[in-house]
Specification:
With about 525 residues, this protein is an alpha/beta fold. It is built from 19 helices and 18 strands. The longest helix is centred in the N-terminal third of the chain and has 18 residues.
Length: about 525
């Protein structure tokens, strides 16, 4: 089935009062700089509906709030939505708006199932992304990133960003190209040292080929890279000149921000920093001292891990504070300390518009309202090697019985590690794959202990879980440590709220009656 022809589609030192917000914003060098950034939570938690609600809601409240979509695994997200029959016909609308009709038609024909896949049937797998990218996979990634950003930008003029993980490098170039074709405003990246991204943005804005060096165990620095010439995917006549989005790097310490601020260390301009503390959800930077753990086995962060705000101000670039910032006083404090504002995730992850499965979202809100929610920083969980904040919830992969019952499989592969073989080629392995497979590929047994398949678990957490002969993939849930905001947004454990409710609360403009149980 082909597509119709494209159609036009319309660390805090002092408490500050909320009045500080207005005056602090006036001191910013660019008044278009957002005061609130909604966290880019993956996979598919920060979907286009949430990002659009935040950006448009900020406009309605007279504040600059940036909605952010998660780009992590978005090619697979869109492929699975299409196999579910494209509920709401949203991807159809986005693909109709894609400037290169032939590419969008090929992707649509490859993945769309009219009426959706049969109940209980598995999703057709998307080929894993390796060093040399298949043309059909590259086209899917470009169209998927375009679609998610394009949908998020409809109906308002607020800023939209997209978030990626530096640890996932092989799909990086087509991801960025697709987002830029959709005129994304900001690219955000953490979970590593994203020094290469600014240069890619510059190259694509000039419609020039770009390269991205891939970290390969056993290889010398910059020995292997992925390469993409935009002309090989989207002829220039279809897209015209691309606009370079701003780039914000996520950093756990001011030391990394200082490093990335040195023009000798990066491939181009970094426009701002998101300083993320260890209480934020998802992946976090490990502590400087990796030898200390508490009684639960969580990494212990110390004074060296606290962001020096004075040194951040000296960089003279916008920065945002992230991690347990979901309170209007925290926003005021950040602004008073010279930050441009805050990046906030958890409060939006639990709102109605987020892509998290409704059943687990309701259960998390209930537990948090009763002060019974347990979130643990698991240093072994993620194949990436970074600590990962995991909600402890029965029936999910945080439950040891569920994890042990799951058959180990690596069929998505986003968090695989690249390594150099004895023959000088690049191969991939994952410490969460079957143990024998990992060992046969040269991995160490100790690296497999406690590892969980985040790829499959995070897809399942948003209702896109794969089905196997032995059953459906169990979810894994991540969240920040602070959920005290719930008691200001809902009046009972079964209550719910919208992204607009969250924005009004954070900006000190909360309505007297928050949204009740839907």
């Amino acid at each position: 089935m082909g597509l119709a022809h494209p159609r036009p589609v319309r660390g805090v030192h002092r408490i500050a009062s909320l009045s500080t917000i207005h005056f602090a914003r006036q001191r910013l060098p660019n008044l278009e700089t957002p005061v609130l950034i909604q966290g880019g939570m993956g996979v598919n938690v920060s979907n286009w509906q949430l990002a659009r609600a935040v950006a448009s809601g900020g406009q309605s409240l007279g504040a600059k709030a940036m909605g952010v979509v998660s780009g992590t695994g978005i090619g697979i997200v869109v492929a699975r939505r299409l196999q579910d029959g494209d509920p709401g016909c949203h991807i159809r609308r986005a693909f109709d708006a894609f400037p290169y009709h032939d590419m969008a038609s090929r992707v649509w024909d490859a993945w769309y199932i009219a009426g959706g896949r049969p109940e209980g049937a598995p999703y057709k797998a998307v080929p894993m992304v390796n060093l040399k990218l298949r043309q059909d996979v590259a086209e899917l990634i470009v169209c998927a990133n375009f679609a998610e950003v394009w949908l998020a930008k409809q109906g308002h003029t607020g800023p939209i960003g997209i978030n990626y993980l530096e640890k996932i490098q092989t799909p990086r170039l087509p991801e960025i190209l697709g987002a830029m074709i959709a005129q994304v405003d900001v690219v955000i990246m953490g979970a590593g040292i994203p020094y290469q991204v600014p240069g890619v943005l510059d190259k694509f804005a000039a419609y020039q080929p770009a390269s991205y060096h891939v970290d390969v165990e056993g290889a010398s620095a910059r020995e292997f890279s992925t390469n993409l010439d935009p002309a090989t995917l989207v002829p220039e006549k279809f897209i015209g000149q691309l606009t370079r989005p701003r780039f914000f790097a996520v950093a756990g310490t001011h030391v990394l921000a200082q490093y990335l601020s040195d023009p000798r260390r990066t491939s181009g301009r970094i426009d701002g920093f998101i300083m993320e503390g260890p209480t934020a959800g998802g992946h976090n930077a490990p502590p400087r001292d990796r030898s200390k753990f508490n009684h639960r086995g969580e990494p212990v962060y110390g004074e060296k891990d606290v962001v020096d705000l004075k040194k951040m101000r000296e960089l003279e670039r916008p920065f945002w504070l992230a991690g347990s910032s979901a309170h209007p006083a925290k926003l005021a404090e950040a602004l008073a300390e010279g930050a441009a504002g805050c990046q906030i995730g958890t409060i939006f992850a639990l709102c109605q518009e987020s892509g998290m499965r409704d059943d687990v979202k309701r259960e998390i809100r209930r537990r948090a309202f009763r002060h019974e929610l347990d979130v643990m920083a698991d240093p072994r969980c993620s194949p990436s090697g970074f600590p990962f904040n995991v909600v402890q919830l029965k029936g999910t992969m945080s439950d040891p019985r569920v994890h042990e019952a799951r058959t180990r499989i690596c069929d998505v592969g986003y968090l695989r590690h690249a390594y150099k073989t004895d023959r000088g080629a690049v191969a991939f392995r994952c410490p969460a794959e079957p143990v024998d497979t990992y060992l046969n590929r040269g991995g160490k047994l100790e690296d497999t202990v406690g590892r969980k398949c985040l790829c499959n678990g995070l897809f399942s957490a948003t209702g896109l879980g794969q089905t196997h002969r032995w059953g459906e993939e169990p979810p894994i849930l991540t969240l920040g440590r602070s959920t005290e905001f719930l008691h200001d947004l809902i009046t009972c454990e079964d209550g719910c709220y919208t992204a607009m409710d969250a924005l009004a609360y954070l900006l000190g403009k909360q309505q007297p009656c928050p949204t009740k149980d839907a």
